[in-house]
Amino acid sequence: MKHSRRTLSLAMALLLVFALAPAEGLIPVAHAVTQEQIDNLKNASKELANESSKLKLQLAELKDQRSSAIQRKNLLDQQIALTTQQIDNTEKQISGFEAMLAQTAYELEENRKQEEAQYAVFCERARVMEEAGSSSYWAVLFKADSFSDLLSRLSDVQEVMNYDQGVLDELRRLQESIRAKQEEQEELMAQTEEAKTELETHKADLDQQRTEAEALVAEIEENVDEYQEQLDELNAEREQIQAEIVKKSNELAQQMNMTATKGGYIWPETVSRRITSPMGGRNTGIPGASTNHKGVDIGGVGYTTNVLATKAGVVITSKLSSSYGNYVVISHGPGNTTLYAHMSSRAVKEGDTVTQGQIIGVTGDTGISRGAHLHYEITENGSRVNPLDYLPNYIKGW
């Protein structure tokens, strides 16, 4: 008898808890991440995968052509950039899944707390009703052999606390909603694990692509005579880029009525102060790398260091070239620019206004480069100047 009363009390408590809950859900907390955002990331991931596949085919076609080494390096740089984007995309998916999982877990936990809080109150109400003699239907309820059977029998007992069939239907709807949420939680967990596996695959691909790129630069070094014509073209490309930089800087300054002041630069990153190659004449040992260095190289930065705008200005170039790899140029007034090269990725586009210290990319070794470093140039009055004049406390590493 006591067990039957407990069963009835629980049924009453559950009825009232669910009936009094908000119709659209128990906890009015908005998702920080929506499924639409996740779907957009997945669509972007598919587009990146398609682009990566196209590059693989192009690389395969050029694999046995020795004269195509520089072209292959450029394609590898593009592939590295795409893989980096895939990693970023997948990390955002994982973050989104984890946020949605946290929200779902919160809602389920709040539901349990509400059920527990209401249980004691409404069990007492059920006890009072039983003691008052409202027992004409107890025999029907006590015959239930499961909770589902109990709900079915309750549907036929219209006298129970004056709840009509609509209340019971709402209870079933809410129960189905909870079951769906639990299924959603399981699906989110599965998608999270799938994304984590995909992330590890992308990271392994990136390591392999970087290894291939380094091997390609070594191949060019070993066969410098075969590639001399192409290497000369790279040097010519650099000079063409510089001419375009000065032209764009002057045009922008005229359009925006900008003025230029000398100096005022900060370090282009915060991790290293080691200068591995100064400005001016040098013996690089790297074919295609200018022997008349137009800027300085900062080593010890790896592939994850943020590159910073050393002075406020407007981005006039953000692209990938065969010589500089991923590079960004910022104009600070007529004839005054800074250039940041060999980055693994860029975070700004042409036309962006940047503040001093703003992140504009991440260090890497794209272009004709051996090992991750940052190539940094300063142009004033239309001519390149020695960045070391503006980089205090540097460490000589050449």
Task: Kindly list the characteristics that best describe this protein.
2 domains; 7 helices; three-stranded antiparallel sheet; alpha+beta; 398 residues
Layout of SSEs?
Blueprint: H1 2-20, H2 35-62, H3 69-131, H4 138-142, H5 147-155, H6 165-222, H7 228-256, E1 274-277, E2 280-281, E3 292-293, E4 296-298, E5 306-308, E6 313-321, E7 325-331, E8 337-343, E9 345-346, E10 353-354, E11 359-362, E12 374-380, E13 383-385, E14 395-396
Parallel strand pairs: 1-14
Antiparallel strand pairs: 1-4, 2-3, 4-12, 5-11, 6-7, 6-10, 7-8, 8-12, 9-11, 12-13
Helix pairs in contact: 1-3, 2-3, 3-6
Question: Would you give an account of this structure?
Answer:
By secondary structure, the protein is α+β, with helices and mostly antiparallel strands. It folds into two domains: 2-219, no CATH class; 230-396, Glucose Permease (Domain IIA), CATH 2.70.70.10. It contains seven helices and 14 strands. The protein has helices at residues 2-20, 35-62, 69-131, 138-142, 147-155, 165-222, 228-256; strands at residues 274-277, 280-281, 292-293, 296-298, 306-308, 313-321, 325-331, 337-343, 345-346, 353-354, 359-362, 374-380, 383-385, 395-396. The strands form three sheets. Strands 1, 4, 6, 7, 8, 10, 12, 13 and 14 form a nine-stranded mixed beta sheet that branches. Strands 5-11-9 form a three-stranded antiparallel beta sheet. The protein has a two-stranded antiparallel sheet with strand order 2-3. β6 (313-321) and β7 form a beta hairpin.
